[in-house]
Amino acid sequence: MSGPLLAFAAVYLVAVWTPFGQRAENALVVGYADGAWMADASQSWGPPPLTQDLETIAVGLAAIASIAVARRRWLAGCTAIVTVLSTIAASQVLKNVLLIRPDLVGADDNLVEVSFPSGHVALTAALVAGVALVAPERRRPALAAVGAAWIALTAGAVQALYWHRPSDVLGATLLACAGYGAAHRLLHPGSRPSMPRPWAWTALLPAVAAAATGAGHEGTVAGPLVFGSAAWICAALLWITIARTSPRRPPAAPPRR
């Protein structure tokens, strides 16, 4: 848990509290938000949680509870729900109350509002983490891969729409990673996470397409490249966090002679 929280603090300090960090992220805001590929969708059907965020939370919590009841994992279900709600609440308190954004570079008014961490990405990542906590262990990597694509799409879109900066989406994901790590340690004390095998990383390929779709923006190239890269990193961070806690398949037994 300490690793994601230290990374969270580092991202905040470098991106928000240094002139270099502020200039670098402000330079990515080129053109208008309606040039984003997801602009029309964000005004109509979504995808969630770009719209209907409260409904998304309700559906996600209902899914977690249903899985926990079906598997009779009462402690895991309660822990997952608390983890989701705590992560979402923490993102809002940190963004709106505790983590200020000083104007170090004389930026325009639309660039000085607090935005770290992203509430939309924290919501998405928290729900993916919550489902992983109650899902069967061997299905976690597959579920995490689907969730990673959802996170990549959401993180790319909130940047392309100029709702958030790259640091905001990274910070939100790290917050969710910390919450998942703490919950997993509570449920599985003494467990030792291990890195997924090389072939398992192919699970992140759909997240590449999702990140590119969400980050797309007309009239600029540099911004979408950075936005898409940050979105994919968000997906990879949470996928790795979840996949590391999933047991590997035991080696096949040698044939009997």
UniProtKB/TrEMBL annotation:
Keyword terms, alphabetized: Membrane, Transmembrane, Transmembrane helix
Transmembrane regions: 74-94, 114-135, 142-163, 222-242
CDD domains to which the protein is assigned, alphabetical: PAP2_like
Boundaries of every Phosphatidic acid phosphatase type 2/haloperoxidase domain copy: 76-184
UniProt-listed Pfam families: PAP2
Source species, domain of life: Bacteria
Protein's name in the database: Phosphatase PAP2 family protein
Native species: Streptomyces bikiniensis
Source taxonomy: Bacteria, Bacillati, Actinomycetota, Actinomycetes, Kitasatosporales
